[in-house]
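Components:
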Amino acid sequence: DIQMTQSPSTLSASVGDRVTITCRASQSINNWLAWYQQKPGKAPKVLIYKASSLESGVPPRFSGSGSGTEFTLTISSLQPDDFATYYCQHYNSYLWTFGQGTKVEIK
Amino acid sequence: QLQLQESGPGLVKASETLSLTCTVSGDSISSNNYFWGWIRQPPGKGLEWIGSIYYSGSTFYSPSLRSRVTISVDTSENQFSLKLSAVTAADTAVYYCARHNDLLTGYYKGHQFGYWGQGTLVTVSS
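Structure:
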């Protein structure tokens, strides 16, 4: 099975910072990679799908990139509403796999 | 507007079977473009996909849970259900139901979980 490893586990940042979260696959994967934002007590919300496509209604400060084994989620200018936990998720051969999450905290 | 709502007991005894139902409104569960899935999240931990079902009854399960999981669909009630047998404290989690694209639709639109229920906490007691 393909393992998805996110880094860092926790990230401390300030409003206005550029933030990058990485998701690494244990082997080269296609672009079936999605990113989610989750706030406490709420269900996750899709931000990015197919590695780099922005979900409808998501602010353009969120972007996704990558290929092969390394993918990134970038927040170009962190806003107060962006402090949350972020997950990557991959699909391959009838298996849907999540990364372990990255918590973005206020510095 | 699509809505998913989980329902079921919030407390289950160890070694018994956890049973949850997801009621779908705003779309037919018989739509041939989507899978319907279950994901769980232990308190303070990450997300784990449990399994998914197509309206026809085809199922896909996480290898780590396959021996204990059954997902079924009731198209007449627009619902799908989860049964997890022989539960232990490690199965204590918030359980979410969600919709995601089937394989053909996902090839073009991605394999993300686009719509989620609000989640329901299930605690396994000893």
